[in-house]
Design brief:
The complex is a heterotrimer.
Chain A: H1 9-19, E1 37-42, H2 58-64, E2 72-74, E3 80-82, E4 85-90, E5 96-101, H3 115-130, E6 138-145, E7 148-153, H4 159-167, H5 176-179, E8 199-205, E9 209-214, E10 228-232, H6 237-245, E11 251-253, H7 259-267, E12 271-274, E13 282-289, H8 299-307, H9 311-318, E14 323-325, H10 349-358, E15 370-376, H11 381-396, E16 399-404, H12 408-417, E17 423-430, H13 462-473, H14 477-494, E18 497-503, E19 507-510, E20 513-514, E21 531-532
Parallel strand pairs in A: 1-10, 1-11, 15-16, 15-17
Antiparallel strand pairs in A: 2-3, 4-5, 5-7, 6-7, 8-9, 9-10, 11-19, 12-19, 13-17, 13-18, 14-18, 20-21
Helix pairs in contact in A: 8-10, 13-14
Chain B: H1 14-48, H2 54-61, H3 67-76, H4 83-95, E1 101-102, E2 107-108, H5 109-144, H6 149-163, H7 166-180, H8 198-232, H9 235-242, H10 247-285, H11 290-299, H12 303-331
Antiparallel strand pairs in B: 1-2
Chain C: H1 2-12, H2 14-31, H3 33-36, H4 69-105, H5 107-122, H6 125-136, H7 140-151, H8 153-166, H9 170-177, H10 182-218, H11 229-236, H12 245-272
The chains are: A alpha+beta, B mainly alpha, C mainly alpha.
């Protein structure tokens, strides 16, 4: 394991239980056993469709990634490896990438996967829906021969960026013969996909589960090891805990049960809990300042908001220790780019008060400097609790707070369409490659009214825009890293939006399940290599 | 709504009763038409008042930012029409049992509701059955032992369950029977990974049924008790007693049947509240019914589904009230319904 | 004299007396909440998940964030009672307005009013409340209005029935022949006589409104700036394995309040409508 997952006090204790009895923490021992049915769940609800071309969040990513495949994947050790691509190579000017496509791959309906499918997927699905924001410099795709495609870009494109694009969670190769000529968003095949992966769609019992069966013609010999994969949806964490305890569910990804139950279940010795497998999708809870409110014009006021908040308290109380204070817009598990050496906005209410005084906002007769609308996005229950705490923390430094916790649709609309907030508590999940997932929260071109999970703070700084533009086209890895470090330093000090805490997502699995948590985005891995010990 | 006592006419018999029932049915069905129309219009207007259309949500959820795609979707869902046109189109579609398309489930609304319907029907039927059997039994016991220890016990228990919020009762029962004692499952409708055998479903049904049903059992107990006491005062019961029939016989043959009438009435009136109560109970027990669907749809602004459930829910209430009138007629032949 | 009789009749119902005393206690709690607990009840004051009695400073323990449950219960009494009273007031105003108009004028006005009432009875109540709250936003005002909108029909029916029986009485006809306006007859002549049974119903609507509000808050659709009992139950729901008291305590508070309001309603019924006893 070359990627070292940063685990803080609490997680380490859990992991110690988890690793016991497994070799080198890879949750695998002996030779794979064939056959059997694996029942899996995750810490969220049923998706709107099995496959959502535009992504649609983690839920459809979880269900579709077992069926569809991408051109490449990133391994735990950080190395990129071809999946439906065999190899890729940049041109000397880094403006074109030549990709060799794997031969002998068949779709589940028996038709061959060809370069036509790749060209269709990239130009019609990726560019339009799935990874549009990573393809802004994309100039087109061609297929010079039957096993090669060429990606063309308008500007030099770094290798790490290109490979990361190929690995994006929903950058799938879809069958052209199924999707061409239809509206991909509403194509009925999204409910019963035909793809190339180790699992074949069999059935979707709404409100209950997906049933996938072994793809006998899978191109990777030997895989999948299991005969059947069931993805079961259980509405509440207590129900998941009960089902896992009863042996009805073998594995749950992305925080399937409540923290107290993690301890209880791993305590039985029949389960392991691990924070591994989320290195390419690190979640955080963020606080952002709406720059449209003139009180935030000075960066000291924004910094004061963060100084007022005790992030350790949030990590310990709201997340039961399954979180750590965030310091930079790039998160600490990001081995390639993270730097701890940034401006610090740690817990210091006195400094917060002093900064606000100095910025021209002394306490008025009612004890308040000014009053803000704090919006905590209601899609995670914890956000409401973070909101309740942040309200109190800011009131302690003399900032009046009106807290609202709207549900998911209202939150999306109020934060990303109406910009109807002064402070917002929201969440992000970021891969290692900072462009565009991370940077679009800070660049001017990320201000897109109505598009969620972009720059809603309205922060616009020509220096940051320039910096990001050069990160985008810098092809020398060392120079690129230096630019990203610079970016982190600027943002941490400017503080338009910063993580309050980085979240530690947990996978809980029966000790019978082998080979799990072996992908830096395990939720979106194909799971062909999982097997069940007897 | 339910029948009103007009005058004690001689009992109608045979075909006369059947034609009376048919006449009643026809009149009620005709009355139901403007009612349904009103329900649709009220709900449609309510949903129009919502800030932000479901289209915004849908584009947000699927991260569609391309203006052309958005325009296409607007057209697909008819959002460019004026509001009255949308309403007319909706009503016209309803007449063909077309409740619209649920983008979230990626299937027609009627199908989405249909999938969740059996679970809710099962929960409602078992809760109502529980409520009636407990309510009638406890009410009869209390009225026969009026002003005794048993009467007080029943009354106090009824007061209790009438005041306890059903969701809280459900959680407390989960704490006791599932967490502490481990006898019953914490939620869901069947064992996960199980094939849903009858016993398994019954096992999962116990707690939700109790949580939803006990509130109504409390109501029926109180109604049944006072109705029994009231009927027992009526002349024909006194006559029966005077003829020397035993007290139990009189109670069962004469009093019970007549005392059931108010229970039947409120059953019809409350059909809607039972359905509404199941929203909360389904949420507590992760019961995969229409209530869960409604809650998901409300919180994801899936208005076509919300509207569909409201319309169907109102239909159920109307149907229940018609059924009540018919049952009324059957239980008490003296009654002709206005 | 008449008043004394009323009190005596009410007090004869022992349950009602106990209920009234407890309600008075809850009301005092609500009024003096800020005196006993001057800090914001939603403030984090201690360690999270302290069991009742574990720390004498927090007799009822703390919730998952470390907020004092006793303080939240006491402040919650205010929110709960206010919501109940205001929702009942909304329902009573609509109900009396519609019922009085229907009963007094009769004819097609009555027909339409009763059809509208039927319409509102047809839509499943809680579903309607949830939809209204979600659509208009989770504020106290919207919750109160939503509950009022689904609760007015029984009051309207009762008012209408009273008006039907009173409108042809001699004293009303006398007023008419004196040329008194309809509005004045309704408000100053018939309404005072029709009011007693309406008051009983209104007190029961308060109890119903509290249950509605707690369900709305329990489902997470309540106002986050208010310490509501229902929301407390909802918040504690994920912790039933470790800290079930967080759910239990506010639920008991809801139950006792509703129970007492029902008892008071029964007592009022006995006192105001001796004829209708045992209904």
């Amino acid at each position: 394991m070359t990627i070292k997952v940063s685990r803080r006090v609490f997680g380490a204790g859990v992991l110690a239980v988890g690793v016991a009895g497994t070799s080198r923490g890879s949750f695998a021992q002996g030779t794979p056993r064939r056959g059997g049915t694996l029942v899996a769940t995750w810490g969220g609800g049923e998706p709107q469709a099995c496959y959502v071309p535009a992504g649609g969040g983690s839920s459809p990513t979880f269900s579709s990634s077992k069926l569809f495949e991408r051109l490449a994947r990133r391994r735990m050790d950080g190395v990129f490896e071809g999946v439906l691509a065999e190899s890729w190579k940049p041109s000397a000017d880094f403006k074109t990438y030549t990709v060799k496509i794997r031969k002998g791959v068949k779709f589940h309906d028996g038709k061959d996967m060809t370069v036509d499918d790749v060209v269709y997927s990239v130009s019609e699905i990726w560019k339009k829906y799935a990874v549009a924001s990573a393809l802004t410099d994309f100039a087109g795709i061609e297929s010079p021969d039957a096993d090669t495609v060429v990606f063309k870009y308008n500007n030099p494109t770094p290798e790490f960026f290109f490979a990361s694009t190929l690995c994006s969670p929903v950058a799938y190769i879809v069958p052209k013969h199924v999707y061409a000529g239809s509206d991909p968003v509403t194509n009925p095949a999204n409910n019963a996909p035909i793809a190339t992966g180790p699992w074949k769609f069999k059935e979707w019992v709404r409100g209950s589960h997906f049933e996938y069966v072994k793809n006998e013609n899978y191109w990777k010999k030997d895989e999948p090891y299991l005969d059947r994969l069931i993805i079961r949806y259980v509405r509440d964490p207590a129900g998941r805990a009960a089902a896992m305890e009863a042996g009805d569910i073998h594995i749950g990804v992305f925080n399937p049960v409540a923290p107290p139950d993690i301890k209880r279940l791993t305590g039985t010795g029949k389960f392991v809990a691990t924070p591994k497998g989320y290195e390419e999708a690190v979640w955080s809870t963020t606080l952002e300042c709406n720059m449209r409110n003139p009180v935030f014009a000075k960066r000291e006021v924004r910094q004061a908001m963060f100084h007022a908040v005790n992030r350790e308290f949030i990590a310990k109380t709201v997340y039961y220790g399954y979180a750590r204070p965030g310091t930079s817009p790039i998160y600490s598990p990001n081995k390639e780019f993270f730097t701890a050496d940034t401006f610090k906005t740690g817990f210091d209410p006195k400094k917060a008060a002093a900064l606000l005084d100095a910025a021209g906002f002394p306490k008025k007769a009612d004890g308040k400097r000014f009053t803000l609308n704090l919006l905590a996005a209601g899609w995670f229950q914890e956000n409401g609790k973070v909101g309740a705490y942040v309200k109190q923390a800011l009131e302690d430094v003399g900032v009046g707070i009106n807290l609202t916790v709207p549900d998911r649709p209202s939150s999306i609309k109020r934060i990303y369409t109406d910009y109807d907030f002064d402070l917002a508590i929201s969440n992000q999940a970021n891969p290692s490659e900072p462009v565009p997932s991370t940077t679009q929260y800070f660049t001017t071109d990320g201000i897109l009214k109505g598009v969620p999970f972009r720059n809603a703070s309205g922060y616009s700084n020509p220096d940051v825009d320039k910096l990001v533009a050069s990160i985008k086209i810098e092809t020398d890895p060392a120079k690129r890293k230096a630019l990203v470090v610079e970016f982190q330093k600027v943002i941490a000090q400017e503080a338009p939006l910063l993580p309050l805490v980085e979240l530690e997502s947990i996978t809980l699995a029966s000790t019978k399940v082998q080979n799990h948590s072996n992908d830096p985005n395990f939720l979106a891995a194909s799971w062909g290599d999982l097997w069940l010990a007897s | 709504m339910a029948g009103e006592l007009v005058s004690p006419t001689p009992a109608l018999r045979g075909s006369a009763r059947r034609t009376a029932a048919l006449r009643l049915l026809r009149r009620r069905l005709i009355q139901a038409v403007p009612l349904m129309l009103g329900v649709v219009i009220i709900n449609f207007c309510l949903i129009q008042m919502a800030p932000g259309s479901f289209l915004e949500l849908m584009t947000a959820e699927n991260q569609v930012s391309d203006p052309a795609t958005v325009a296409l979707l607007r057209k697909t869902y008819g959002l460019d029409d004026p509001v009255w046109m949308q309403l007319l189109k909706y009503i016209w579609a309803l007449l063909h049992f077309d409740f619209g398309f649920s983008y979230r489930q990626n299937m027609p609304v009627i199908q989405a509701i249909w999938i969740h319907l059996p679970a809710t029907v099962l929960l409602m039927v078992s809760s109502i059955a529980l409520a009636i059997s407990i309510g009638v039994a406890a009410g009869v016991v209390a009225s026969m032992k009026v002003r005794t220890f048993w009467d007080s016990l029943v009354s106090i228990a009824a007061m209790f369950f009438y005041a306890a919020p059903s969701f809280w009762l459900g959680i407390m029962m989960i704490v006791l029977f599932s967490v502490k004692l481990g006898w019953l499952p914490v939620g869901g409708m069947m064992k996960i990974g199980g094939n849903g055998g009858v016993l398994d479903i019954l096992h999962h049904l116990i707690l939700p049924t109790l949580a939803l049903g006990l509130f109504y059992a409390a109501i029926y107990t109180r109604v049944m008790r006072s109705s029994m006491l009231e009927v027992a005062q009526l002349d024909f019961v006194r006559t029966a007693r005077a003829k020397g029939l035993s007290r139990n016989k009189v109670t069962i043959h004469h009093v019970l049947r007549n005392a059931l009438l108010p229970v039947v009435t409120i059953l019809g009136v409350q059909m809607g509240t039972v359905l509404a109560g199941s929203v909360v109970i389904e949420s507590v027990f992760s019961w995969p019914g229409v209530g869960s669907l409604l809650f998901d749809s409300v919180s994801s602004r899936n208005y076509p589904v919300v509207l569909g459930i409201m319309v169907l829910g109102s239909l159920v209430v109307i149907a229940a009230n018609i059924a009540v009138d018919l049952i009324y007629m059957w239980l008490d032949p003296r009654i002709e319904i206005r | 004299m008449q008043r004394f009789e009323f009190v005596a009749r009410f007090a004869r119902n022992r349950g009602a007396l106990v209920g009234a005393c407890l309600i008075l206690f809850v009301a005092l709690m609500a009024v003096f909440a800020s005196v006993f607990f001057p800090t914001d009840p939603l403030r984090i004051v201690g360690l999270p998940e302290l069991w009742p009695g574990e720390d004498p400073e927090f007799p009822l323990g703390t919730d998952s964030l470390g907020r004092d449950i006793l303080s939240m219960i006491v402040h919650g009494a205010r929110a709960t009672l206010l919501i109940g009273l205001f929702a009942s007031a909304v329902a009573t105003i609509i109900g009396v307005g519609v019922g009085a108009t229907a009963g007094y004028f009769g004819g097609w006005v009555d027909e339409i009013a009763m059809r509208v009432a039927e319409l509102f009875q047809t839509i499943p109540n809680l579903i309607f409340v949830l939809t209204i709250v979600v659509i208009l936003g989770s504020t106290l005002t919207n919750i109160v209005i939503a509950i009022g909108i689904v609760s007015w029909t029984p009051i309207a029916r009762m008012t209408r029935a009273e008006f039907l029986s009173l409108r042809d009485r001699e004293f009303v006809q006398a007023c008419r022949s004196m040329g008194m306006s309809d509005l004045r007859i309704i408000v100053s002549e018939i309404l005072p006589n029709a009011l007693p049974p309406v008051i009983v119903l209104s007190s029961l609507v308060v109890a119903g409104a509290i249950l509605f509000e707690s369900a709305v808050s329990f489902l997470g659709l309540g106002d986050p700036n208010v310490a509501s009992w229902g929301r407390l139950v909802g918040d504690g729901r994920q912790l039933i394995r470790s800290s079930w008291y967080i759910c239990a305590i506010p639920g008991i508070a809801i139950m006792i309040t509703v129970l007492c309001l029902n008892l008071v309603g029964d007592g009022l019924n006995d006192a105001l409508n001796p004829k209708l006893r045992d209904r």
